[in-house]
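Here comes a specimen:
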Amino acid sequence: MSDIAAMALEALKDHSRGLHVDELALRVLTKYQNLQIDAESLS
């Protein structure tokens, strides 16, 4: 999965009320540890 939007949607599956963008970035980076980006840039 190389599309960051798809990764974000996957991370939001269990959170129907949504997440703050910073929390979402951390969850994406935790799940997809091979990304070469930091949380601040991803946010």
Remarks:
- The chain has one domain: 4-42.
- The first helix runs from residue 4 to 12.
- Residues 4-42 form one domain.
- The CA atoms of residues 8 and 28 lie 6 Å apart.
